[in-house]
């Protein structure tokens, strides 16, 4: 349950003042330790600012929740409607194929020049499609109204899908989504505004692929190993020459807190992911540190049998789609990866997978509210990729969002068990009610700096994230609000400017990699 904002602010006020005073009093210590709040590094003339990169990524990471929920509810309605006629999955496919054939034939007829010699063939195809559709109606005892209902559901679910069409779907069929979900995920207007922003940036933007076939809304079921699979979408922006892989997070923030005791077990970060039983038996893959076992299996493990009979992991499925995209319609594009919450962790592990073998040049990962996913070995692999200019990671977190602080952490050598470590440039954003704090601060696990390591370990533990109304701090609307509040500062810095500053990273990047 979300606490009304005025009450939440009043209850948090004493804690915010206490932390603010402590923050100010430690300024001399931070100066001595060379850990400033936010370096203002001029952005390159031809480079995008951190804000310019983050804003569209947050829109994508947010809209995937709402859009996949619309698709999920549409599938439920489709199946319930089909049950009225005792239709099998095969029969539903027959109806869909007949409707699609009619729609594409009609569209072709509209486009053809009547003087063209091929116009008679196009007209003949349309007439055939109408007859097939009539046969379908008679076979399953459907009316024209029934066909319209099925056509509506199929159109919502079709792929590829333009951002303009998604905008239309959200406006027309918003009531398919439960009121509780709408309220929890920012409300109808907020989500529609996100897709409007996406369309305004690039009217030709589209979703090339979306995989939400094996969805379960409960993160608890995922943790306990029940039937639920990763949800992702591939967005293409011709205007920006950018392909973005977006991973959806858990739809229930309470599940994160309830299941923190299950989040500690690690496994080797072996690449590539599962491809076949034969390859698994002769496993000769390299390991790049260790990561959370559940997260790894979710993205890199064997999946449910797909339509093509394959059990290939989601990671390798996505890699195959990307290789095909970059070889054909997206030559010269840049690869971005994003996600919020659980999706943030998925995005970081997948970005590492995509960058490790250098297939896409530089990979940019922009994650939001991501929990820990790997150990020091995983971080060391990230360092190597960063120094080779193969990966860039901007990790956004909200102060008092507890999810990016789990599991617990400690400096190297100070804990007897495996400890999680974050990667990349962390932009921590603060609420306006948090007095005496800046709007945002930068943290990076500077290579070879013990003082930096101790500082980050202290500030990245769960007690530092506790507050009244902890759930609201984790949700996308709050991330959007704080990103806008921090926009002035974030427009002054660039991703490359941060990575080129050895005082921040502890290393130099002098290898030129094709974008």
TrEMBL record:
Domain Fungal lipase-type: 245-408
Keyword presence, Transferase: no
CDD domains assigned: Lipase_3 (cd00519)
The EC number(s) this enzyme carries: 3.1.1.-
Pfam family of the protein (one): Lipase_3
GO terms under biological process: lipid metabolic process
InterPro entries registered for this protein in UniProt: AB_hydrolase_fold, Fungal_lipase-type, Sec_MonoDiacylglyc_Lipase
Keywords per UniProt: Hydrolase
An annotated Gene Ontology molecular function: hydrolase activity
PANTHER family: ALPHA/BETA-HYDROLASES SUPERFAMILY PROTEIN, FUNGAL LIPASE-LIKE DOMAIN-CONTAINING PROTEIN
Protein name: Lipase class 3 family protein
């Amino acid at each position: 349950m979300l606490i009304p904002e005025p009450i939440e602010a009043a209850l948090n006020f004493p804690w915010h003042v206490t932390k603010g005073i402590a923050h100010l009093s430690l300024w001399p210590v931070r100066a001595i330790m060379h850990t400033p709040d936010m370096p203002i590094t001029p952005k390159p003339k031809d480079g995008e600012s951190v804000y310019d990169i983050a804003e569209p990524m947050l829109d994508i990471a947010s809209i995937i929740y709402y859009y996949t929920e619309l698709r999920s509810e549409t599938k439920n309605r489709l199946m319930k409607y089909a049950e009225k006629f005792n239709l099998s999955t095969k029969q539903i496919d027959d109806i869909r194929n007949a409707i699609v054939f009619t729609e594409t034939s009609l569209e072709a007829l509209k486009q053809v020049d009547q003087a063209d010699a091929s116009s008679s063939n196009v007209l003949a195809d349309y007439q055939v499609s109408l007859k097939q559709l009539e046969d379908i109606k008679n076979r399953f005892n459907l009316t024209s109204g029934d066909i319209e209902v099925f056509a509506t559901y199929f159109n919502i679910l079709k792929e590829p899908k333009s951002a303009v069409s998604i905008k239309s779907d959200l406006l027309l069929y918003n009531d398919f989504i439960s009121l509780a979900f709408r309220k929890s995920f920012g409300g109808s207007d907020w989500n529609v505004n996100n897709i409007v922003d996406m369309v305004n940036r690039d009217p030709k933007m589209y979703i090339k692929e979306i995989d939400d076939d094996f969805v379960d809304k409960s993160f608890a079921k995922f943790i306990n190993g029940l039937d639920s699979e990763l949800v992702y979408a591939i967005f293409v922006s011709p205007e920006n020459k950018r392909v973005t892989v977006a991973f959806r997070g858990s739809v229930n923030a309470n599940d994160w807190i309830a299941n923190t005791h299950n989040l500690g077990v690690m496994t080797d970060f072996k690449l590539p992911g599962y491809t076949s039983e034969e390859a698994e038996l002769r496993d000769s893959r390299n390991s790049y540190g260790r990561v959370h076992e559940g997260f790894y299996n979710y993205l890199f493990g064997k999946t449910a049998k797909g339509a093509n009979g394959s059990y290939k992991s989601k990671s390798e499925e996505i890699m195959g789609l990307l290789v095909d995209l970059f070889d054909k319609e997206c030559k010269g594009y840049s690869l971005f990866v994003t996600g919020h919450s659980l999706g943030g962790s998925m995005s970081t592990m997948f970005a590492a997978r995509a960058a490790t073998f250098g297939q896409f040049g530089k990979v940019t990962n922009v994650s939001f509210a991501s929990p820990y996913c790997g150990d020091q070995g995983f971080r060391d692999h990230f360092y190597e990729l960063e120094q080779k200019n193969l990966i860039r990671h901007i990790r956004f977190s909200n102060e008092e969002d507890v999810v990016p602080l789990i599991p617990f952490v400690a400096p190297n050598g100070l804990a007897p068990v495996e400890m999680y470590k974050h990667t990349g440039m962390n932009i921590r954003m603060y609420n306006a009610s948090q007095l005496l704090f800046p709007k945002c601060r930068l943290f990076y696990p500077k290579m070879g700096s013990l003082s930096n390591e101790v500082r980050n370990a202290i500030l990245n533990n769960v007690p530092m994230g506790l507050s009244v109304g902890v759930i609201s701090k984790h949700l996308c609307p709050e991330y959007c609000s704080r990103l806008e509040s921090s926009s002035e500062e974030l427009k002054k810095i660039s991703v490359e400017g941060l990575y080129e500053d050895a005082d921040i990273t502890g290393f130099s990047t002098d290898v030129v990699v094709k974008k």
